[in-house]
Amino acid sequence: MRNKNGFANLYLVLVFAVLYAPILYLMYYSFNSGGTMHKFESFTLDYYREVLGDTRLMIIVINTLVIALLSSAIATLIAIIGALAIQRVRSRRAKNTLLSLNNVLIVSPDVIIGASFLILFTIVGIKLGFTSVLLSHVAFSVPIAVLMILPHLQEMSPTLTDAARDLGASRRDVLTKVVLPIIKPGIFSGFFMALTYSLDDFAVTFFVTGNGYSTLSVEIYSRARQGVSLSINALSTLIFLFTILLVIGYYFLNRRKNRPAGPLSEPAAEMGVPR
Amino acid sequence: MKNKGKAYFLIPYYLWIALFVIAPVLLVVYYSLFDLDGHLTLDNYVNFFTPVYMKMMLNSFWYAFLITLFSLLVAYPAAYLLTRTKHKQLWLLLIILPTWINLLLKTYAFIGIFGTFGPVNHFFGLLGLGEQQILFTGFSFVFVSVYIFIPFMILPIFSALEELNLSLVDAARDLGASGWTTFRRVIFPLTISGVRSGCMAVFIPALSLFMITRLIAGNRVITLGTAIEQHFLVTQDWGMGSTVAVFLIVIMALFMLVTGGSRRGVRQ
């Protein structure tokens, strides 16, 4: 038994090592004055200076954040409405249809989402750039946020709304004073998932950005295609640190919110398809 | 709630479905009927059945299959062992963490690792194998893709294993089943829903990856995704691109029918 355990641990350690090695590798060479990713010459912070002094890049970072925050906020709003809409539907069949339609964008490959949105925006006459990127981020974030909110809505006891109505609350009061507070944890996780989807998206954005407008992942792609440049390494180190902060923040936020469910069960099951 | 109409507030959501779910699919189908000059034709569909595209499709499938298979082979034991660890949630968090790092950055790292002077080649040198061309091969494409998809395979399997009733395993052992038999007859069948949703989360995107093929496989591997990107953004042949997309949609729908019911495994 002991022996088996040792082997098991070794396997897990190996998986973790493989998962983290490339990331650590990137970070390590971001300090290399040699300018390559294979021979470490001496320690330098030059690439960090380069990244932080690059105004174009800073604008792109701000673009990315603006798009992420704005699109998640709008998507969450639409998703709340969507969850209410799905909840309202009585017939099982109609409900399933609505749910399937909701999930189409989650299971579709990114290239198809990107290509079809490109066609859509061109036909409607929306100029490629900020608007098209924002709209597409809203579009693909909505379904995931709906899926995060819906369970909370379903768990809510219908007697609560009935009681509120009986006590004379208006439709509006029921929504703002009863329903919304109850589904708040779902709204938060929906917003957060939308945020990470938006920050991480490459393929869809790549299709709908015109010239001159770029988000971080599109920029990374075009730089990486030109070969190794250690400023990408420095950038990725900064992003990694930022991500860790974000994850830790989310972890504690979620742990406070729903203790019984276990802090990660929700995002874990919902991580879905990478973008 | 009374259904007294007045559901105006639901409009944004239905508008979203109409505009961003239904319209795009219809538009792709519509565009697939036009050639480069804008003539209504079925040529694109005829072209799709020529050896070039057939080979590409088989290629795409073969790679997606390999990627799914290897992800599963690595992920299942890992998920199983994870459920046995003490601080499960913490370890799970550590599995999830790399998925939050941009996919392109992780792919970019492999340009260095697999490069001519990278550590892997250095290691080969030490073994006396000499320098190998690793980058720009099918192998590197599969490896990097598996690397990227492993967490997405581990998560659903982990959830399925967590729900597994351990007394069933104990019962099997008590009744004299060997470790392997227990796994084959009890554990695996009971966690098949997790395996299904894991495979779905890997197979479909694996069919359409184009950034990894571009960065790592150097156009050596051409998948359906690469073809769509090429047609839409490089050759501007939206008709043919749409045709490939239509087939990808059909394949996807078929795949979901085959693995049907597995949506439940993803937990609603």
UniProtKB/TrEMBL annotation, chain A:
Q: Show where the ABC transmembrane type-1 domain sits.
A: 61-250
Pfam families the record matches? BPD_transp_1
> Mind telling me which residue stretches traverse the membrane in this protein?
7-28, 57-86, 98-124, 130-153, 174-197, 232-253
Q: Does the keyword Nucleus apply?
A: no
Which subcellular locations apply to this protein? Answer: Cell membrane
Q: What Gene Ontology terms for biological process does this UniProt record contain?
A: transmembrane transport
Q: Which GO terms describe its cellular component?
A: plasma membrane
* Topology in the lipid bilayer: Multi-pass membrane protein
Give the top-rank taxon of the lineage listed in the UniProt record for this protein.
Bacteria
Q: What is its main location?
A: membrane
Q: Which UniProt keywords apply?
A: Cell membrane, Membrane, Transmembrane, Transmembrane helix, Transport
> Would you identify the family this protein belongs to, as annotated?
Belongs to the binding-protein-dependent transport system permease family. CysTW subfamily.
What is the protein name for this chain? Spermidine/putrescine ABC transporter permease
UniProtKB/TrEMBL annotation, chain B:
Annotated family? Belongs to the binding-protein-dependent transport system permease family. CysTW subfamily.
Short name of one Pfam family: BPD_transp_1
ABC transmembrane type-1 domain boundaries: 57-259
- The transmembrane residues are 12-33, 61-83, 90-114, 134-158, 198-218, 238-258
User: Which topology term describes how it sits in the membrane?
Assistant: Multi-pass membrane protein
Against InterPro entries, the record matches this protein to: MetI-like, MetI-like_sf
Q: What keywords does the record list, in alphabetical order?
A: Cell membrane, Membrane, Transmembrane, Transmembrane helix, Transport
Q: Where in the cell is it found?
A: Cell membrane
Name by which UniProt lists this protein:
ABC transporter permease
List GO BP terms, alphabetically.
transmembrane transport
Coiled-coil region(s) at which residues? none
Write out the GO cellular component annotations: plasma membrane
**Keyword Ubl conjugation assigned:** no
